[in-house]
């Protein structure tokens, strides 16, 4: 399975954006990239090796945003019961996949749900 250059560029932008958030670190549990803040995952980035379809999984608490994310081609509530908690997996290779800017907005929302108030204040000040 080859990854489209467009999808890969989006993925790289989203990853860079996520890791630029205050206190964000990248870790590789289960062999996939995740961005964490305060030891908690705020975005699952998956792998970019073509082993799985490229996508990002974010936690969206705002009902409208959550509903919007689920209307993206191929988007679905995340597996392992995470969907019930507001996590949405958004594939990047589907025709009509969201733009990197929108994905970054969702990553920021996910970060705000999970990050401690002190780091959110830092984000808002920045």
TrEMBL record:
Pfam families cross-referenced by the UniProt entry: YjbR
Keyword DNA-binding recorded: yes
Entry keyword set: DNA-binding
A GO term for molecular function: DNA binding
Keyword check for Ligase: no
Domain of life: Bacteria
Protein name: MmcQ/YjbR family DNA-binding protein
Organism for this UniProt entry: Streptomyces phaeolivaceus
